[in-house]
Each structure stands twice: as C-alpha cells, then as structure tokens.
Amino acid sequence: IQANLASNNSRQIYAQIAGLNIYEGSDGGLQLAIGGRGLDPNRSSNFNTRQNGYDISADVLGYPESYYTPPADALSEIQVIRGAASLQYGTQFGGLVNFKMRKAKDDDSFKIRTKQTLGSFQFFNSYNEVSGQTGPMRYFGYYNYKRGDGYRDNAGFRANNAFLNLSFELSASTEISAEMTYFNYLAQQAGGLTDAQFAVDPRQSNRERNWFEVDWKLYQLNLKHNWTERSKISLSLFGLDARRSAIGFRGNPINLNENPITALDEQNPDGSYVNPRDIIEGEFNNWGAELRSLNRYTWGGKENIFLIGLKYYQSDNSSIQGPGSIDTDADFRLQQDLYPDYANQSRFRFPNQNISLFSEHIFSISDRLSITPGIRLESIKTVSDGSYRQVIFDNAGNPINNTQLTDDRELARQFALLGIGASYSPKESTEIYANVSQNYRSVTFSDIRVNSPTFIIDPNISDERGFTSDIGVRGRHQDFLSYDIGVYGLFYNDRIGIILDNRANRVRKNIGSAAILGLESIIDINIAKLITSSKEYKWNWYANTAVTHSEYTDSEETNVVGKRVEFVPKLNLKTGMKLGYKNLLMSGQLTYLSAQFTDVQNSESPQDGDNRAGVVGPIPAYQIVDFAASWKKNFFTLETGINNVLDASYYTRRATGYPGPGIIPSEGRSFYLTLGISL
Description:
The chain is mainly β. Helix content is about 5%, strand content about 55%.
C-alpha cells in the first residue's frame, strides 16, 4: 500500500476492500470507523475487531466499539473475513477485521526502523520500531507519538502508543508469546455543525470546552503447539483494562426542544461559563480465553480440514454520566456535589458473560470442489445493574423534583448460528464461491442507558438478527489481471434505528426488517507486465466498485417501508493508478460515494433554525482525489503526498452524540512529508 500511513488514512489504506463505507472525521487517524454492506461505520462496531487474533474492542457484545486502532506502519497485514468463514470469530454482521503486527524476520539479529512525518495543521508523527532475535527469543516493539492542531478550530490532539511482543520457541513444535499494548490519546472536539454553518465555513467551531480521552491497555499470552504436521492447537489468554472519557457542552439538557448544535453555551460577563458540561465515562475490564484445534486428515483420497474451538469471555464494565465542571480544560472529574439537580445522571455496571463453541469443516468433494459448513453455539448473559436520576423542572428551568430510580435487567439467551460455504475451481487460477451465514447483534449498553440531547431510547429495544449470503468469482489471469466480482444479500430483522414518535421525539428503537443487495468488484491490472518484461517499471490500475440497493421491507412504523437503509450509498467507487521506475513510485486515487441517508425515514435537511438542523438529513455525494509518492535508496525512504488534492468540502457523518451532535466535516487539502530510516 502506498498511502499516508502516518495518519492512518483509511480512505487510502482500505481502498481495495470492496464496499466499505468510511467515516473520515477523526483527525490523525486515531480511530478507525468502517462499515460495509449497509452497516453503520461508527467506530467499526459492526465488525469483530482483533489484533493478532484476539479482541481489542471495548466489549465484544456489550459495547463492540473500537477506540484503539494500531498504527498502519506497524502492520504486516490487515485481514478482512466475511461470509460463513467469519462465524468462527464472532456473530457480527460485518465479519472480522484482524490487524497482524510485523514480526522479526529469521535473519534479523537486530533491526531498528524509524519514520518521522510532518504535515498540514501542525501534524507531527514519530514512529520508532525495534525487532530482532536472541537465541530462542524473538522480539518486536514500537513507540508511536503523534500530535496536531486538527483541521478545524478546537480540534487539537496528542497520542501515545506503545507495543511489545516477545515470543519463545520452547521446542521445534511449541511456541509461547506474550504481548502488551498501551494507547492513550486526548483530543479536543470541535463539535458538530448545521448545514448552514457548514456551507459558510466547514472549519468553524462553536464549542471550545469539549474533550475526549482514551486510555487502552491490552494483554495477551498465546501458546501454540503442533501435535503433528497435520494437527495443531492454540490457546490464547487476553485481557483489556481501558477507559474512555468524554466531557462537553452538547446543548441544554433541560430544553430538549432546542437545537443542541446552535444552543448558546452561556457565559458570564467575566467570560466564565454558566452551565456545567456533560460527562460520560466508561471503564472496561474484560478478559477471555480462546482454545482452537485444527486437524487435517485424508478421507476418500482427499484432504479435509476440521476446526473446533471454545471461547470464554467475561466483562465487568461500568458507565457513569453526570455533571462536569464549568471550565474549558480537559477535567473529567464528576461534580455531582456542586450540581445535584443536573438532568443527565446515571451510574451502571454491565457484567456480561459469553461462552461460545464454534466449528468449521472443509470437505473436499473433489480436487476442484469443496464445501465448508460452520456452526457457532452461543450462550450470552447480559446484565444491566444501576440507577439514574429523574429530575423534573418547571417552566422557568427550576428543579421541582429529583428522584433516584433503579433499572436492573438480566437477559440470558442461547442460540446457534449456522453457515455454509462452497468453492469450485474450474482451473487453478479461478475460484467460484458461494456463502450463506446467519448473523446476530446484541443490544449494547449504550443502547440501553445513555442520555442524549438528540434522541431517547425505547425501553423495549432488543437484539438484531439476520443473515448474509454471497456468490462470486475471483482469480488471476496470466499474472497481469486479478479480480474478485460478486453479488451479495444482507437481510436484517429488528434493525435498530432512530425514528420520530407521535410527539416528534427522536427515538432509538427496533425499526423493522431490511434487505440490502449489492454488486461488489475489485479489478487490478498490471499494465507494466503487458508492455514490458522489465521489473524496473511499475504501472498498475485498480477499480473497487460497489453498487447497492437497500430497502426497508417491513415495519410497524409509518413512512419507513420502501425507504432506503441509512449509510448505504448506491455507488461506492475507489479507483487509482500506480506508476513507478526503479525506486521511485507515484500513485493517484479517486474516491466517489453517491448520496446516502442517515435516518430510516430518509429525511431531507430541515430548514435553518429547526431544532433538528444538522442532526437530520442526507450526506451529499462527494469525490476526493489523493496523490502520493515515495523514493527509496538503501536504508533511506522519502514519502510525500497530498490528501484531498482538489480541497473538496465534504462530510461523511452526522453525529447524534459525541463528537457532535451535528455534521462532522472531513479534512480539506493537506500535505505530508515522511523520512524513514531502516538499519
């Protein structure tokens, strides 16, 4: 990949993964936000996200949002697995995203690699890596620091990320490894905009005291053992100790009929602020164990593969919402004693437990045909234990009643998810494939108990279920053409969304059934190999195209059936070209997404002054052009590029809560320059 790796530019890094919809509102690439096939991209919550095979999200079922994304410079591979094969990793509709870290090579006794990047908006990124081998021990580690002022006012950030992996060969057939990840960042949040504000100046901000902080610690211990060359077993023990904290003014919590984007953050004559800020803090203490056994055997003269695994996952998470300070700094301390009648107050624990048994079996029917059934048995217990305050105000905004209420729930369910895949290879370089797989998404604790100024939550909200299927063909032709072309269907029951109730309140609830049908294709042509046999020349063209039809097919709500599903552009195109001679390489990329809706009723943008302006409305079509170049000589590497060459003003998200509410503008034209040294 030739891309702006220093800022984790997901538009470029994931350019050749079919059908991904990407939120691009995170300065510095601190968080990955991708969705595919009609799934909400918010913090990649519809994927099972892993690093070196173990979970890294806040809570796989209870809060599957990913606040940590490893730096692209540290990765050797990004695996995306969808269809029936993803069942072995989880229940998610989106499938698996697994980040594989770089490793020390066999011939490396010691290696150091450093990359320093400067960019627009005072961006600076320092990536520093060491790897090597000493006797039976291999090691790989990095430290990454980044900072920037951000594209918009009030959007500065700084981040620290460290990683260490140690692996030991206990014998020729046994390896044990341990690794630890630390990630911390603090970012000021500029808040969201209305359509009118965005049209005037997408870089403006009317929020100066909104902050977000993440503190992430991941641990893993992994044992691999080969009983024979055809029989392997692995045991992974992993844990998460993490926290995310948000503080900010998101509108007056008393007046829900006021637009939270344009609401005045009142100040006294001396410049101090009048209203306390809203704090939402989550703590995540999770651990799990996953045991896998892979066996190859011969039956009927054909090799077959049997996989079986068991996963245990235990989480003990908590969420607190309440009043913060009236100051402007990143102070995440609760101020309940000073503001006992603050409207949004709650304190909850979410101790969840998940036990999964999964299995896949590849049956080789012939040398060219194989069938792979899969099954995942789930036992899930979700607990919500806590209290919240119900504060009633008079017409003048004075509190007249303050009551503490409890909300204790326990939901246990057991079910099986089935999937089957088939692969037929008419010749060695071509594969025809088909899959169908059941999927499931648990209600998260943010679905249950977080107060928002832009919507309320239906107390009867429940899990989502459905299935995905696809059929396609992929392969290579004479080493100059590679392709993957397929059609898919994703079918949702009880899909969760936001809709207006009979009192004009926006309510998050189960909307109904939806169908998403699409054509996805990736074509890559090595033009250089067509015109010359010299390896010194490079010339590639690729096109990643997704054409999608989406529709709500059933709902008890009015004005929903027949509407398009939110976050689904009809056309999603990423195409580009790479040119090079010897150690010089240049590339250009065009990204185009047609218009998409952000709510189930396909609402148009309200008039300026409406209390929903900025939060409700479509995302207009946009197209972005990127350019990158690199040059390598011995142990030096020089990289440069221009993101958003034409300086398009666009956005990919209308946030209903943090980091908004409102339109979150994407970054305009920016430059970067990277110097790399590898010794």
